[in-house]
Write a structure and sequence with these properties.
The protein has a single domain, classed as 3-Layer(aba) Sandwich (Rossmann fold), CATH 3.40.50. It has seven helices and seven strands. Helix 1 packs across helix 5 and helix 2 packs parallel to helix 3.
Length: 192
């Protein structure tokens, strides 16, 4: 059993935001692995499917980013999912666009979605960090305000064409490697 969590914010205004790259990936997983339509459950948009003979739950918390832990805990507890089989997909400003890194535990680096999950279930889950970079120097007057504006702004058409759509597709088709803990092979196969 696996729980795949995409972080993001619900609602039409956020759909193409950098902060919603986790939702984008979970939507891609649901389509590729032929999951039923998402339903409202566990304070989330929720569905489940079978991948490689494993029951896999797909979760997009509808609590908004800062309270993602509520939805993750409710789902984890209901299914008694082991924390080591929880994989969270999220945006990461300290990684270049299109790069992916994987981490288990550690700090949240100011990411409010991770901070909430840490608070509710601890730090033993796996994180797939999808690079969106930081705003450019020109963009930075008030650094905290501009980082918030940056992650809550949409990916450009250039981003989508150059790397985003391709990366999401590669991550989707190589998901089984993550499930089998073939981390290096997953990273190699998703490299841009």
């Amino acid at each position: 059993m696996f729980l795949f969590v995409g972080l993001g914010n619900p609602g039409i205004n956020y759909v193409n935001n950098r902060h919603n790259v986790g939702f984008m990936l979970v939507d891609s997983l649901a389509k590729h692995y032929k999951a039923p339509n998402f339903t409202k459950k566990f304070k989330s948009e929720f569905t489940k499917t079978t991948i490689n003979s494993n029951i896999c739950m797909l979760l997009k918390p509808s609590t908004f980013m800062n309270n993602s832990g509520l939805a993750v805990k409710e789902t984890k507890d209901f299914f008694n999912c082991p924390i080591e089989n929880i994989i969270v997909f999220h945006d990461e400003i300290d990684i270049n666009p299109g790069q992916v890194k994987i981490k288990k535990g550690g700090g949240h680096n100011g990411h409010n979605g991770l901070k909430s999950i840490d608070q509710f279930i601890g730090k033993g889950y796996n994180r797939v960090r999808i690079g969106v970079s930081r705003p450019s120097k020109i963009y930075q007057n008030n650094i905290n305000e501009n980082i918030s504006n940056w992650v809550l702004s949409d990916f450009s058409l250039d981003d989508k064409a150059k790397w985003l759509d391709n990366l999401i597709e590669k991550m989707t088709v190589n998901l089984i490697l993550l499930m089998e803990k073939e981390i290096n092979q997953f990273l190699t196969n998703t490299r841009q």
